[in-house]
Write a structure and sequence with these properties.
This protein is of the alpha+beta class. The chain is 42% helix and 36% strand. It is rod-shaped, with a radius of gyration of 31 Å. The termini are far apart.
Length: 194
Protein backbone atom coordinates (compact mmCIF):
# COMPACT_ATOMS: atom_id res chain seq x y z
CA UNK A 1 0.00 0.00 0.00
CA UNK A 2 1.30 3.41 -0.84
CA UNK A 3 2.06 6.06 1.77
CA UNK A 4 -0.54 8.40 0.20
CA UNK A 5 -3.26 5.73 0.45
CA UNK A 6 -2.30 5.01 4.05
CA UNK A 7 -2.53 8.73 4.92
CA UNK A 8 -5.92 8.91 3.20
CA UNK A 9 -7.21 5.93 5.20
CA UNK A 10 -5.89 7.45 8.47
CA UNK A 11 -7.45 10.84 7.66
CA UNK A 12 -10.76 9.14 6.75
CA UNK A 13 -10.65 7.08 9.99
CA UNK A 14 -9.95 10.22 12.04
CA UNK A 15 -12.75 12.07 10.26
CA UNK A 16 -15.14 9.17 10.96
CA UNK A 17 -14.01 9.11 14.60
CA UNK A 18 -14.60 12.87 14.93
CA UNK A 19 -18.04 12.59 13.31
CA UNK A 20 -18.87 9.71 15.69
CA UNK A 21 -17.74 11.65 18.77
CA UNK A 22 -19.72 14.70 17.62
CA UNK A 23 -22.81 12.55 17.01
CA UNK A 24 -22.56 10.99 20.49
CA UNK A 25 -22.09 14.38 22.17
CA UNK A 26 -24.84 15.95 20.09
CA UNK A 27 -27.16 13.02 20.90
CA UNK A 28 -26.47 13.57 24.61
CA UNK A 29 -27.35 17.22 24.25
CA UNK A 30 -30.50 16.36 22.29
CA UNK A 31 -31.41 13.76 24.94
CA UNK A 32 -31.03 16.39 27.70
CA UNK A 33 -33.12 18.83 25.65
CA UNK A 34 -35.80 16.17 25.09
CA UNK A 35 -35.73 15.29 28.80
CA UNK A 36 -35.99 18.99 29.68
CA UNK A 37 -39.02 19.34 27.40
CA UNK A 38 -40.67 16.27 28.93
CA UNK A 39 -40.05 17.42 32.50
CA UNK A 40 -41.26 20.95 31.68
CA UNK A 41 -44.38 19.52 30.05
CA UNK A 42 -45.13 17.39 33.11
CA UNK A 43 -44.58 20.26 35.54
CA UNK A 44 -46.57 22.83 33.53
CA UNK A 45 -49.43 20.35 33.11
CA UNK A 46 -50.07 21.02 36.81
CA UNK A 47 -50.73 24.63 35.67
CA UNK A 48 -51.47 26.30 38.98
CA UNK A 49 -50.33 24.46 42.07
CA UNK A 50 -52.55 25.35 45.04
CA UNK A 51 -50.36 24.83 48.08
CA UNK A 52 -51.98 26.35 51.12
CA UNK A 53 -55.54 27.00 52.26
CA UNK A 54 -56.46 29.25 55.17
CA UNK A 55 -60.03 29.12 56.46
CA UNK A 56 -61.33 31.99 58.54
CA UNK A 57 -64.38 33.01 60.52
CA UNK A 58 -64.64 36.56 61.78
CA UNK A 59 -66.90 39.37 62.96
CA UNK A 60 -67.28 42.77 61.33
CA UNK A 61 -68.91 45.84 62.77
CA UNK A 62 -70.29 48.77 60.83
CA UNK A 63 -71.15 51.95 62.71
CA UNK A 64 -71.98 55.11 60.86
CA UNK A 65 -73.91 58.31 61.24
CA UNK A 66 -74.34 61.35 59.10
CA UNK A 67 -72.10 64.23 60.17
CA UNK A 68 -71.70 67.93 59.67
CA UNK A 69 -68.27 69.32 60.53
CA UNK A 70 -67.40 66.07 62.33
CA UNK A 71 -70.47 66.39 64.55
CA UNK A 72 -72.85 63.39 64.44
CA UNK A 73 -76.39 64.36 63.63
CA UNK A 74 -79.09 62.96 65.91
CA UNK A 75 -81.30 60.17 64.55
CA UNK A 76 -78.80 59.27 61.78
CA UNK A 77 -76.83 56.49 63.45
CA UNK A 78 -76.82 53.03 61.91
CA UNK A 79 -74.96 49.92 63.02
CA UNK A 80 -74.59 46.37 61.89
CA UNK A 81 -72.79 43.30 63.21
CA UNK A 82 -71.92 40.57 60.70
CA UNK A 83 -70.44 37.11 61.31
CA UNK A 84 -68.87 35.62 58.19
CA UNK A 85 -66.55 32.84 57.10
CA UNK A 86 -64.41 32.20 54.08
CA UNK A 87 -61.14 30.83 52.81
CA UNK A 88 -57.97 32.03 51.17
CA UNK A 89 -55.64 29.98 48.96
CA UNK A 90 -52.04 30.54 47.90
CA UNK A 91 -50.38 28.84 44.99
CA UNK A 92 -47.66 28.90 42.36
CA UNK A 93 -48.12 29.44 38.62
CA UNK A 94 -46.27 26.48 37.12
CA UNK A 95 -46.26 28.08 33.66
CA UNK A 96 -43.38 30.27 34.88
CA UNK A 97 -41.06 27.29 35.49
CA UNK A 98 -37.59 27.29 33.94
CA UNK A 99 -35.39 24.18 34.07
CA UNK A 100 -31.68 23.46 33.91
CA UNK A 101 -31.02 19.71 33.50
CA UNK A 102 -27.65 18.00 33.46
CA UNK A 103 -27.99 14.21 33.66
CA UNK A 104 -29.51 13.35 37.05
CA UNK A 105 -29.12 16.96 38.26
CA UNK A 106 -31.90 19.50 37.89
CA UNK A 107 -32.36 23.11 38.93
CA UNK A 108 -35.89 24.50 38.84
CA UNK A 109 -36.64 28.23 38.81
CA UNK A 110 -40.22 29.12 39.69
CA UNK A 111 -42.02 32.38 40.53
CA UNK A 112 -42.99 32.82 44.17
CA UNK A 113 -46.44 32.02 45.51
CA UNK A 114 -49.33 34.44 45.32
CA UNK A 115 -52.88 34.61 46.63
CA UNK A 116 -55.07 32.70 44.17
CA UNK A 117 -58.44 32.92 45.97
CA UNK A 118 -59.98 34.90 48.79
CA UNK A 119 -63.65 33.99 49.04
CA UNK A 120 -66.32 34.77 51.60
CA UNK A 121 -68.96 32.05 51.78
CA UNK A 122 -72.23 33.84 50.99
CA UNK A 123 -74.20 31.02 52.64
CA UNK A 124 -72.39 31.56 55.94
CA UNK A 125 -72.97 35.28 56.46
CA UNK A 126 -75.16 36.15 59.44
CA UNK A 127 -76.36 39.62 60.33
CA UNK A 128 -76.88 40.50 63.98
CA UNK A 129 -77.81 43.65 65.83
CA UNK A 130 -78.98 45.63 62.82
CA UNK A 131 -79.99 49.19 63.69
CA UNK A 132 -81.10 51.70 61.10
CA UNK A 133 -82.29 55.20 61.55
CA UNK A 134 -85.01 56.98 59.70
CA UNK A 135 -82.49 59.21 57.92
CA UNK A 136 -79.64 56.71 57.43
CA UNK A 137 -80.78 53.24 56.42
CA UNK A 138 -78.57 50.18 56.05
CA UNK A 139 -78.38 49.21 52.41
CA UNK A 140 -77.07 46.07 50.72
CA UNK A 141 -74.16 48.11 49.37
CA UNK A 142 -73.08 48.85 52.99
CA UNK A 143 -72.83 45.09 53.64
CA UNK A 144 -70.88 44.44 50.42
CA UNK A 145 -68.41 47.24 51.17
CA UNK A 146 -67.92 46.01 54.74
CA UNK A 147 -67.24 42.44 53.57
CA UNK A 148 -64.81 43.66 50.87
CA UNK A 149 -62.86 45.68 53.48
CA UNK A 150 -62.76 42.65 55.79
CA UNK A 151 -61.43 40.40 52.99
CA UNK A 152 -58.64 42.89 52.32
CA UNK A 153 -57.84 43.14 56.04
CA UNK A 154 -57.68 39.36 56.47
CA UNK A 155 -55.46 38.98 53.39
CA UNK A 156 -53.09 41.69 54.63
CA UNK A 157 -52.85 40.07 58.08
CA UNK A 158 -52.16 36.64 56.54
CA UNK A 159 -49.40 38.11 54.36
CA UNK A 160 -47.82 39.78 57.39
CA UNK A 161 -47.83 36.42 59.24
CA UNK A 162 -45.88 34.76 56.38
CA UNK A 163 -48.67 33.01 54.47
CA UNK A 164 -46.80 33.25 51.15
CA UNK A 165 -43.49 32.19 52.74
CA UNK A 166 -45.18 29.00 53.94
CA UNK A 167 -46.64 28.45 50.46
CA UNK A 168 -43.16 28.86 48.90
CA UNK A 169 -41.77 26.32 51.37
CA UNK A 170 -44.50 23.85 50.40
CA UNK A 171 -43.85 24.48 46.70
CA UNK A 172 -40.24 23.42 47.21
CA UNK A 173 -41.30 20.29 49.11
CA UNK A 174 -43.78 19.29 46.39
CA UNK A 175 -41.26 19.85 43.58
CA UNK A 176 -38.51 17.93 45.42
CA UNK A 177 -40.87 15.00 45.88
CA UNK A 178 -42.20 15.13 42.32
CA UNK A 179 -38.78 15.40 40.67
CA UNK A 180 -37.29 12.76 42.97
CA UNK A 181 -40.00 10.37 41.80
CA UNK A 182 -38.97 11.16 38.20
CA UNK A 183 -35.46 9.88 38.98
CA UNK A 184 -33.48 13.05 39.61
CA UNK A 185 -30.87 12.71 42.34
CA UNK A 186 -29.58 16.26 42.82
CA UNK A 187 -32.54 18.66 42.90
CA UNK A 188 -32.34 22.39 43.50
CA UNK A 189 -35.44 24.62 43.55
CA UNK A 190 -35.01 28.39 43.34
CA UNK A 191 -38.09 30.51 44.15
CA UNK A 192 -38.01 33.91 42.46
CA UNK A 193 -39.48 36.71 44.55
CA UNK A 194 -42.15 38.84 42.97
Amino acid sequence: MKAGSRKLIIVAALAALLVGVYAVLDFGTQRDNMKSDIVRERITSISELALLKYEYKDIALLEDSKKINDIALPFTQKSLLIVFSGYMKAGVDMESVELDINGKNITVYVDGASITDNVIDENDVSIYDEKSSLFNRIESNDILELLAREKDRIEKEALERGFLDEANKRAKEVLYSYLGAMGFENIKVEVRKK
